[in-house]
Amino acid sequence: MRIITGIAKGIRLKTPKGLNVRPTADRVKESMFSILANLTLPAGRQALSGAKVLDLFAGTGNLGLEALSRGAAFALFIDHSQTSLAVTEQNISNARLGDLARVQRGDSVNALDKLAQSGQTFTLIFVDPPYNQGLVQTVLLKLDTSSVVAEGGLVVVEHSKHELLNTQWQNLQLIRTERYGETFVTFFMRSIGETNTMATGGS
What we know:
Elements: H1 26-38, E1 52-56, H2 62-69, E2 74-79, H3 82-94, E3 101-105, H4 108-117, E4 122-127, H5 135-144, E5 149-160, E6 172-180, E7 183-190
Parallel strand pairs: 1-2, 1-4, 2-3, 4-5
Antiparallel strand pairs: 5-7, 6-7
């Protein structure tokens, strides 16, 4: 597993040993970022250049680091596992992207409430939870009404083909779905204009 392109191109990423971590395969990641690079966004904005990234269920930091390498301005990595975050920190250091990154330990779902309460917003959010545990729907339900997602911001979800994903949301608009064998990647964009947001919630 490696960073595919950008300022940290070719850097090998470490993976925690003995943990149930499923990093995004390079071929899936390459396709995902090719799509992001070619999306037409409001006001001519680019998905990656200058993006503020939230990498939920970060694992190794694979997706957030690829975004930083390709021009994102900042990435916050969240995972409940201290071991995973230690590996993420090592990967950040090896890629020499420490000035652009921060790691935070915690439950990725509950973290969204705390981020909203502190007024933080992100233009690109990766959601890559363990497969087939119902977490994708839970996170999307929260993101749909959360001020954490900037207007015109993107939410990119990696999920199993066995997980039925709701594609009709109040504020998140489905823009694309791709299949790679057992894996699906679904892209949503936050509506611009009249949206219903929830800046606070449970702890």
